[in-house]
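Q: For a teaching session next week I want to show students how multiple molecules come together into a single three-dimensional assembly. I've collected the sequence lines for a complex. Could you give me the predicted structure tokens for the whole thing so I can convert them for display?
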Amino acid sequence: MKLHIINPNTSRRMTEMIRSSAEQAAAFGTEIVCEGLRRGPEYADCAYDGVIVSHELVQMVQADMRMAAGYDAYVVASFADPALDALRELTDKPVVGIAESALHFASFLGYKFAVINTLPRLERTFEDEVRRAGASDRLAVVKLPPYRVSSFLESTEDAKAMLVKTAREAIEQDGAEVIILAGGMLAGYAGFLSAAIRAPVLDGVKCAVKMAEALAALGLTTSKIKTYAWPDAKKAYIK
Amino acid sequence: MKLHIINPNTSRRMTEMIRSSAEQAAAFGTEIVCEGLRRGPEYADCAYDGVIVSHELVQMVQADMRMAAGYDAYVVASFADPALDALRELTDKPVVGIAESALHFASFLGYKFAVINTLPRLERTFEDEVRRAGASDRLAVVKLPPYRVSSFLESTEDAKAMLVKTAREAIEQDGAEVIILAGGMLAGYAGFLSAAIRAPVLDGVKCAVKMAEALAALGLTTSKIKTYAWPDAKKAYIK
Amino acid sequence: MKLHIINPNTSRRMTEMIRSSAEQAAAFGTEIVCEGLRRGPEYADCAYDGVIVSHELVQMVQADMRMAAGYDAYVVASFADPALDALRELTDKPVVGIAESALHFASFLGYKFAVINTLPRLERTFEDEVRRAGASDRLAVVKLPPYRVSSFLESTEDAKAMLVKTAREAIEQDGAEVIILAGGMLAGYAGFLSAAIRAPVLDGVKCAVKMAEALAALGLTTSKIKTYAWPDAKKAYIK
Amino acid sequence: MKLHIINPNTSRRMTEMIRSSAEQAAAFGTEIVCEGLRRGPEYADCAYDGVIVSHELVQMVQADMRMAAGYDAYVVASFADPALDALRELTDKPVVGIAESALHFASFLGYKFAVINTLPRLERTFEDEVRRAGASDRLAVVKLPPYRVSSFLESTEDAKAMLVKTAREAIEQDGAEVIILAGGMLAGYAGFLSAAIRAPVLDGVKCAVKMAEALAALGLTTSKIKTYAWPDAKKAYIK
Amino acid sequence: MKLHIINPNTSRRMTEMIRSSAEQAAAFGTEIVCEGLRRGPEYADCAYDGVIVSHELVQMVQADMRMAAGYDAYVVASFADPALDALRELTDKPVVGIAESALHFASFLGYKFAVINTLPRLERTFEDEVRRAGASDRLAVVKLPPYRVSSFLESTEDAKAMLVKTAREAIEQDGAEVIILAGGMLAGYAGFLSAAIRAPVLDGVKCAVKMAEALAALGLTTSKIKTYAWPDAKKAYIK
Amino acid sequence: MKLHIINPNTSRRMTEMIRSSAEQAAAFGTEIVCEGLRRGPEYADCAYDGVIVSHELVQMVQADMRMAAGYDAYVVASFADPALDALRELTDKPVVGIAESALHFASFLGYKFAVINTLPRLERTFEDEVRRAGASDRLAVVKLPPYRVSSFLESTEDAKAMLVKTAREAIEQDGAEVIILAGGMLAGYAGFLSAAIRAPVLDGVKCAVKMAEALAALGLTTSKIKTYAWPDAKKAYIK
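A: Of course. Below is the structure for the complete assembly, covering every listed component.
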């Protein structure tokens, strides 16, 4: 089985962290191809960025299809879950977002969950995703640790301590039972944090890899009945 | 006051119908500049098209800003209301969609409304917009008249009869009290249809023009506090 | 165009503030007729008051109709939006409430809004209106500044400082991006407050005037299909 | 125990039917005082009527209080449940509506219920009441038998057959398990209909009488903490 | 009339408190038979306990039916409202839970209510019950006084003071207008607490007794149409 | 990895179908232990049955724990998803229901789904599960093919034709894009039906096996923070 994991950002450091997380999760026999965007924002964190990265994403998947790249499923590795609907039209192979995967996995492990977020502008995007995933009743809180992104990329002791403090507050003050780490740059922290707080901690990249494997293993494909039908080929694009 | 009405499709016929509708609605002293996209689908009707037209839309508004075009407000004239969030980040001038405008206007005129739609694939998009506008309880039905788009563009007698029949069914069978015509290509039919069925019929383009005029006249601008804050200028785009 | 703005309270000071706000918002060519109730509470703030002022409101509109007063639209200028359904039955001219207008306008300018309220007993009424307008997900908070109504009517420096403090808390602590000033007695403060906090501040009276103008300009009338059908004339009232 | 049952209509025939139903439901020792309005519509069925009858209702309860009439609880016997909030402010004795009572009773007897309605214009009012009672998920259908009100008042065989047919359709086609008869004029039919369809049939008047007895027997009074606090006595009404 | 009140716990002290509360609420002529479980947890407070006590409850009601015990209605006296659906299948006599009864009664007396809970693990169960009763919008808060269960069973002065403090916080900080005491062990405190805080306080056992009396007095039985149809007798149980 | 698949019914034929389905879905290296109940109904289809099978389920898992059976995860293979909360308290190994698994998988493959159900009494249970899984907006319809359970167990041509007809109706009339087969006895039909209707068809048993494998592979365990904390061991059960 061959999965295409796309980091819809241009940060190479983040792409490496996502690749590492995906490879740890992959089953024996799953091939992981992990790429970042070639153009676009280093870290997409607003709706304008979302338009830019969505445009790149559809072109990457179209290129795969022109080249018959043979992927069995796609993972879009941004917690904003951009362009999922458009990609599900372009291919019938399963397309899986990391936020929706983490939200569905969380529902099996506890009643209320918290999302730990590193990009303040994504808060409304998360609320929309949680609503779309039908999990609004179960969201305890979205927490934003008062810390710079770069600290997490460098994995300092301070960053770790801040993460433990934030997760404990989510549990003790907000009633969270499961912690979801939002975004690729926290991907490496799930194991450490889970041990520290003795509660399940979800890394969306890992959840998405397992979800993609599961859908592909069962031979399931995206429904082409209506919402995700192939785009109409006859329409002329003036480009 | 100067409004930029953008048809996020490339059909020139549709752009003319939208311009005509907007000019009829405009107050004395309102200048209407109405343009279609230069690239993209003739009629956008799926999520993939939405990605393409959103990308064009942000570039048009960015061009306006580089040229200090001096628009007082923007109207995006597609019933899919594409890219509104991104455009609200790029400018602080009011940005108004035609679907959201029609939905808000309808709430003053009756309890339940029907949407008459010409593009079957937009059904789910409409459901999302209705939910986003908080109008789910008031949506009686989305009706799709069994008719080709081209008939409406040519305004044949058959197309008119079909529209009356569809609206009457929405009223008699589904409990609608107000009719919303979705999409630019039905823009010219509101007056005719309202007279025929003796009920309010809303043309989203006209509603959006009045909404844009109202917001601009009151000197209101998009909040830059959080959701629609300016995109971070320091981020490097590798283009 | 001729608008009848009715203050459903008997305070003349408040009627003057509403008139002033309405006249500032009115387009060139819009005639504003602004009246308070002749009987009833000085400030309606409970459900019992609502019954009294609703009874007065229907009589005022019935008097207009007997006299063929020729109004193009009505504005009910209380944040409790009383008797709107009954008035929409009595006339087919648009009837617009100031709370619903402000709620719909807010949705174009930001994601979350706060309502600043001066009458503590209206809190539940506001919650009902927000739900009816479909805006529950977007309400950040209803704030009640710890201050006497009379201070606002006299526009003291203390009142202004309190208003700025309250709005800032709504933004910083509750996540509001747009501020709605509830009630006629705050009508004069929108411009001052918006400049102070650098965020959009909505005066419901102004929003309602623009909404009434927009509906009337498009020739739209209340649907008589069902919910707002004319009251049955044959029924005998024993009076 | 002494209950004041008020029919907020002027039809004497309907008041008699309500009195009969209330007396059948009353416990040993409960005194029923049942009155209709002296002024207002014979059958209130629209929002305008609602304003008129609400104004009468508050005056009746105010008269009771001036006369120290000594009622232990109030029942408002219209399926539109008018003026309940205002009456709960005027007295601390329990005030009970017949629609809300029937809705709460139904929830103990089955999962989905149908409302059989005789006044077509009340449909939206019922939807609001069902939402307010938190029973939206359980409403199977509101059915309107195609029959004149007068037939039910005369209790013809045709009216009975029509009622059975309507209830059976609600069960077989719409999934109803419990039938609620809306409005005083169907009050006498519950026993007959329940026997015919072998399912629980609720008469709102009887449910409200038992609810009022229960609240009064437990010595419970309306909370004066906030929503239903006494109207402010100091305010001057210019009458 | 004969009511079977079942305490789905094995604590005899709690059964006595429930019996006392039920007897105080019972109308003249109502016979109260109050029993605890013979097997199972002293205080059920988790889902596993719920499975155990549900199994005991169905056996007790089956025993009643074998012995033709002749109960007119059943009350399940745990705030977790266990096994109500199953019991409604086994008998057509009304089956009433104490939590659902309190929730429905509260809606007649104020807008927002608080639940005072003594068993921390039941919080999610309460949330489910509140949602099932359609009362989510009206729940102000679930408060857990920082106190041991045994204190309440012994009715110490400290326990009383703690209860008053908790109720006052619910009113002043959370906007509650009505207080619901959750669970049998607080059953004796409603009168004391209501006098202390001058607001309605509901004892679920008393509400359930009145509800059961009301349903039985009106001759109402559980609908056997669908959800609560009798279990299929032909099925073989291998026991 | 070792999964315990429990059929909470006593039908051996159904247990064999579930085992077959589970073994087809299992990854290389996953050991499937599939058992039915020893006591209880052949096919559980009502709330009373739910109480009985829940009691058996907790005993089976308790027996596993006494024997240190070493399962890595549990699957409860009834579409009613019984006792999941209780089992999640008894063990920290993932516990997965087949209905919730199918609902979560469906959300990746299409917007609206239909459930094909063979046991009419489970309709309300399904509605509860769909709500609990947050998927209410996406449920197109629950369809009940007019056919006897035994036909499906025997896999007759008539049963197959009926299934195709039912699925086509769900797609064409109700807007479904994905089909979920409810219950173990339809487990064998997913491949056949998917080929016939050219749309994804989900077998809950297979989805649950993949979900259990995914959770266990990532080393995730049920949160013991609050909702699913271990039952309190000190409590005495009088048995």
